[in-house]
Amino acid sequence: MFDLFKLALCLYVIARTIMPLPTSRLVKIIVAVALVVISQHHLITRITTGNMFSPEVPRAVMISVNIGFVFIVLAAMMQLLSDIISVLIAVVKRRQVRVSLTARAIIIALSLGLSSYGVSQALRVPSLKEVTLEIKGLPPQFDGYRLVQLTDLHLSRLFQREWAEATVTATNAIGADLIVITGDLIDGTIEARKNDVPPLGDLRAPDGVWVIPGNHEYYFGRPEWMAQFKALGMQVLENQHTLIERDGASLTLAGVTDRSAVPFGQEGPDLQKALAGSPPDNVVVLLDHQPRMAQNAADLGVDVQLSGHTHGGMIWGFDRIVAMFNNGFVSGRYQVGDMQLYVNNGTALWIGFAVRLGVPSELTVITLKSV
Questions:
Q1: What's the confidence (pLDDT) of residue 219?
Q2: Which positions ≥6 away from 20 have C-beta within 8 Å?
Q3: What's phi and psi for 236, nearest 5 deg?
Q4: CA–CA separation, 310 and 129 (whole Å)
Q5: Does the predicted TM-score (pTM) go above 0.70?
């Protein structure tokens, strides 16, 4: 259904926006064929590689495909709006109203410009974002404690070694006490990403670098990838916790597996198991890739949950749709009972729809404050 929907959007753009243009039939046919192929690039990747999450083609090709795909989505939205307005005017004036060639040219130019800009914004090394979380019961030893949250790095043919090196350098320059990575570090097999992942081994923080799996780790062999992350010096939390200590006080850092584990025959998220044995009065910071089960975490006494997965919705307005699939959580801070949830827009995002318009990626520094 997903592929058919994309094809329908593409055919709508071809019929209503491209074909009426005053240019040669050959040019319009070439453009139409190219758009149909681009609209089906996820299906083509599934057929050729077995899944749609890691097309191993040149980076320039994937950049072009993303620009073309975003163009289709934006042009379809703008053309639909134009058609609706034309119908309403026709009803009021009781005569047929046609969308002008000038309007179609504007739709094409604006869609192409926005798609190019949006993809360029998705590919950049993210800017620093400062977030302060005030926590009741936080020991004074942790007042001002700073951690960096990275999430959804999606190292791939779009986000390669150079991007990873620049992101690691920017992260280390912050000098935070702790670094956490809340899943979806990669897209691709260990062999495919052998040159892109090693820079993550250079991440440094006094209290370590802690990582949990996201859904994409399961698509490419979670056990092998988690072992690879450990080999790079990162510490893994899978339905486990650790204690971060400061001058006789401690807080609990817990992490769970992803909801995608169960279809792969692996252990799903188990927060009760992750918290078993944790000091009952400790402030608990939970790493959970997906935010949708935040209420469950709040009910079990978690104080802070850090998540990703949504990419913030990627496009302003589209975030409302993404929120519907994540229990209303899509970007930024939420109060869930007595718990604070922070949903990170993502350090990068999936290669299959790499665009950011009004929803920037972020290199997130979270400061804990006692109240």
A1: 95
A2: 99, 101, 104
A3: -105, 135
A4: 17
A5: yes
Q: Which helix (H) or strand (E) holds 119?
A: helix 101-123
Tell me how far CA of residue 121 lies from CA of 115, 126, 256, 265, in angstroms: 10, 9, 31, 37
d(CA 76, CA 125): 29
18 class by beta-carbon count within 10 Å (0-12 exposed, 13-18 middle, 19+ buried): buried
- Cβ atoms of 255 and 289 within 8 Å: the answer is no
Q: Write down how long the chain is.
A: 371
Tell me 357's DSSP state: B
Integer-rounded Cα radius of gyration of the chain: 23
Name the one residue in this structure whose structure tokens are 């991007």.
Answer: 163
CA nearest to 118, candidates 364, 360, 319: 360
> At which residue do the structure tokens 């094409």 appear?
108
Look up residue 249 and give its two tokens.
Answer: 């006080």
Q: Within the chain, what is the greatest distance between any pair of CA atoms?
A: 80
Q: What is the pLDDT of residues 52-108, one digit of tens each?
A: 898 999 999 999 999 999 999 999 999 999 989 888 888 888 777 777 888 889 999
Q: How far apart are CA 229 and CA 237, in angstroms?
A: 11
